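Last lecture ended with a question: if I hand you only a sequence, what can you say about the shape of the protein? Today we answer it with a concrete record. The protein is Queuine tRNA-ribosyltransferase. Below, first the input exactly as provided, then the predicted structure, then a couple of comments.
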Amino acid sequence: MDFQLAAKDTHSRARAGTLTTAHGEIQTPIFMPVGTVGSVKAVPQVQIKEEIKAQIILGNTYHLYLRPGTDILEQAGGLHRFMNWDRPILTDSGGYQVFSLSGNRKLSEEGALFQSHIDGSRHLFSPEKVMDIQRKIGADIIMAFDECPPYPSDFAYAKKSMELTHRWLARCVQHLSGTECPYGYEQALFPIVQGSTYRDLRKASSEFVASMECDGNAIGGLSVGEPEETMYEMAALCCDILPEDKPRYLMGVGTPWNILENIALGVDMFDCVMPTRNGRNGMLFTTKGVINIRNKKWENDFSPIDEGLDCATSNCYTKAYLRHLFVADELLALNIASVQNLSFYLHLVAEARKHILQGDFKSWKDNMIPQLKQRL
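The predicted structure:
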């Protein structure tokens, strides 16, 4: 994997770059649609590629391990072939999903013992096993196994959790050095900075992660309930320490304005379920602001959903029609709203990149954010 910076904004820490993987190039900053089980909910791969113009998508180790299982994925030739996707894929390690099981998991030095949400069966995720699973999935970028502490966490727990994550990271790196991707291409490892919302822990974790000299670095444990300003403070602190010549990935963030503010802090990569989850519930992110398409005010609005996007779905259906589909509980509504939101997110980061290259990113961002927050 290779990462090259093309430009840096002079009035913020925003940067534009190119990340090269075995399955193609990624222009940063970038948003990555979440395809947890090998599918972006309600959106087929052809739309993800041709309409939404996604350059990379996510899969999840925990979910793909449980179903369909690594045997099926290996027989298919990896996740790319299984889901017919020829562009880059990143897989989360499953650490967040194991964390979210709360009472149904037990942490130890060895790893995380958890109970499947599908059938109640018990499994152990060790750092080594998670690396082996991601080898078999075949993602271009794989994440180190970590623990994501809950928010709020007291200092003692956050420190203990961070130190465990660091020891697990060292084991991930050591184990990967003795294995190869079964599909014949290189996979990049991204470790994850933890430390909750404590500045000294975040600093220590960022320094440890940077010292591992991996292909890129991720910032985890944010957007889990902390105030926005705290998220920005922690992200800025991490970006100050993580190496400039490696891509920085802020996990699970967030709203359109969160993304722009974190781009300004030096983050390159983002993912979040918000555009698809909110879309399926009738909330649309558009170039003019946020729309609750179920509201009666859209009942006889025959204008396109979003003329500001270069997306066929957003331009060929009206707000009135989409509202009708939601009211009638038609499945097509979920697809149209998801395509709209994902197209908007990809449009937003492409515009951010354009303005970084032009040299006017900060002023553009400051003007855009109030518009993005506007409720229509």
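Comments.
1. The chain has a mean pLDDT of 96.
2. The chain has 15 helices and 17 strands.
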